[in-house]
Write a structure and sequence with these properties.
The chain is of the alpha/beta class. About 45% of the residues lie in helices and about 20% in strands. It is built from 10 helices and 11 strands. A hairpin with a 2-residue loop joins strand 5 and strand 6. It is globular and about 45 Å long. The chain starts with a helix and ends with a helix.
Length: about 230
């Protein structure tokens, strides 16, 4: 966390936590002036331990409870309806607590199944007050979709987004620091401004160099454009 703060970041997402007490984590972040704005939380816990998950986010002073991906079993047309049914109650309780369930996309949500994309089914079944979308720019691009178009479609839900770029090595698509790949980030950032997105979060699952070097490159490139 100290290295992240030294780069210049002031907000973080926390997920895949090891054996650390939440109050200790919060104290560390407070000392470094890092605000925890989003988590990725185990979907089973969101579903079955909703009140406890809300309490934990109260400790972190974090209003956005993230689900990193739709569990595998719900991804087909036969099972998707159960996702809306199962998570609808949890989303409602989270909203009643003054927080918001945030769904993080990959590329599979853009597959058309029986003429409709999974991402379209999500926004039909959950209102903006029940579910936000943590739009991941790389995965939208990987799906062959237009990132700026989907920012406009989802503009009422984009409280937090994941920014990462796409480059190529030979014939392979690879993740890259923001502004160092081939995606239209100037257009993407303008679209996010219009959507009144609150938190631009850097995420790079796979780095060609040190993760901290990648974080610094993304931060510096965004800071040069006035995004801090």
């Amino acid at each position: 966390m100290q290295k992240i703060a030294e780069i210049g970041y002031t907000t973080v997402q926390v997920s895949a936590l090891g054996p650390i007490e939440l109050r200790t984590l919060k104290e560390i972040c407070d000392e470094l002036s890092l605000q925890i704005v989003l988590t990725h939380t185990n979907p089973d816990r969101i579903l079955n331990e909703t009140d406890r998950v809300i309490e934990e986010h109260d400790i972190l002073e974090c209003n956005y409870i993230g689900i990193g991906a739709m569990p595998d079993k719900y991804r087909g047309l036969d099972w998707y309806s159960y996702f809306a049914e199962d998570f609808g109650e949890a989303a409602g309780r989270i909203a009643e607590a003054g927080k918001l369930l945030m769904y993080h996309n990959h590329h599979f949500e853009f597959e058309k199944i029986d003429g409709k994309r999974l991402i379209e089914r999500l926004i039909e079944d959950f209102s903006p007050e029940e579910m936000g979308i943590t739009l991941d720019t790389y995965w939208v691009q990987a799906a062959g979709a237009d990132v700026c178009e989907w920012i406009d479609i989802l503009k009422d839900r984009l409280h937090c987004v994941h920014l990462k770029d796409m480059s190529v090595q030979g014939t392979q698509q690879v993740m890259a620091p923001v502004m160092e790949g081939n995606m239209n980030f100037r257009g993407i950032l303008k679209a996010l401004e219009k959507a009144n997105t609150k938190h631009l979060l850097i995420e790079q699952d796979v780095c060609q160099t040190s993760p901290f070097d990648c974080l610094k490159a993304s931060y510096d490139n965004l800071a040069a454009l006035g995004y801090r």
